[in-house]
């Protein structure tokens, strides 16, 4: 295993080395090779070899070579008939976690990994992969990106724990309620009411600056609590009165009422507005969260995975 020997000896293994020694070609197969693993249909064996090689390069801080092999792992998945499975998602997440957070290769890798994990459904990636990515980004204290991926997962508890840390370390005490309010409203806009409820309950129980409730000292938290109850009941009159009574709290963020317009459509039968009350950037943010032309009758949490812009 020349590659392994050279790496263990501390020698650099450059991209051009992949094609130099003939003996190394089967070690690092290319998809157009007529004699390598790919042409023999042995994607799994080749993929395992490339994955192990990538881990070896990462362990020796050879980021470029490791990134190249990581992309070949993805290429193997894309060109094979491999089914999306937890072990494959965990491998992809492991490679992501070892990449330089600031490298362009990491951006390209995660984009392709999420696309593959969607299984051609047009969604924005498998919830499990989103969860694993969110955990890695949380460990890196990249809270904004972590929140994005948690929103596209089904891990409300993990999201809440991350938000507690995010709020405690980076937020103002006066905005402790806004961290969870945004997450709950965005989960509901994605029709994931289970995660919305879990993130609210966990966050309010664990945040050191929130007194035990309900009811809560913060009016916005009481609104979210009532909203979750109203969503379960589905009564439009309750939803309407609730939004009217808590307008002072809802005016703290101009996006709240936009989210609530969508929630009204999804859970209370409110017809869509003919024109958005916001244009430009704010309108684009809302459209990216909610998506356009989506069918609302699909499974909870999976029916609308349009991108969510996070500030």
From TrEMBL:
The keyword Repeat does not apply. GO terms for biological process: protein insertion into ER membrane. Residues 289-311 are annotated as: Disordered. GO terms for cellular component: BAT3 complex. Residues 293-303 have a biased composition (Acidic residues). It is found in: Cytoplasm, Cytosol. Its main location: cytoplasm. InterPro entries: GET4, TPR-like_helical_dom_sf. Keywords: Cytoplasm, Transport. The keyword Transferase does not apply. Belongs to the GET4 family. PANTHER family: GOLGI TO ER TRAFFIC PROTEIN 4 HOMOLOG. This is Guided entry of tail-anchored proteins factor 4. It comes from Strigops habroptila. The gene is GET4.
